[in-house]
Write a structure and sequence with these properties.
The protein is an alpha/beta fold and 140 residues long. The protein has four helices and four strands. This is Resolvase/invertase-type recombinase catalytic domain-containing protein.
Length: 140
């Protein structure tokens, strides 16, 4: 400024979009209530971590590595500048073989995997149910 005063704008005073993420759910025989609860869980996690949740992809059943919603997610990650994919737990990626393939495909696109609750941790059950455990699997 002309009078020598330096003006800065704090981001806390302005709306700033967080990194873009997409949710992914794989549900076996789950009710609409469970889907709604998991959707709220993903949204709350993103709010807490200042992430912009731009959509949730949902596959039903045991499936394969090429389930429709997962392929749609990959297609979107290919053309967007998304930060990552958020899931309730790693179990939503599928069984071990399928989950490994899915992790590799997401990692190859440079996106991170973020888990609301890391199912591999050994925290007591009471703590696992209330804490968020972000886990980055990529190098972005």
């Amino acid at each position: 400024m002309e009078d020598g005063t330096l003006w800065t704008t704090l981001t806390e005073q302005r709306e700033v979009d967080g990194p873009i993420v997409y949710g992914y759910l794989r549900l076996d025989r789950s009710s609409h209530e469970r889907l709604a609860a998991l959707t709220v869980t993903l949204a709350q996690y993103c709010d807490q971590h200042e992430l912009q949740l731009c959509g949730i992809f949902t596959d039903r059943g045991r499936g394969s590595v090429n389930d429709r919603a997962f392929v749609g997610l990959l297609n979107l990650l290919t053309v967007s500048d998304a930060y990552g994919v958020v899931l309730p737990t790693s179990h939503h990626l599928g069984g071990r073989r399928i989950a490994d393939q899915r992790r590799e495909r997401i990692d190859a696109l440079g996106a991170r995997l973020l888990y609301v609750r890391d199912s591999r941790r050994t925290a007591p059950p009471a703590l696992r149910s209330i804490q968020a455990w972000p886990l980055a699997s990529s190098r972005r």
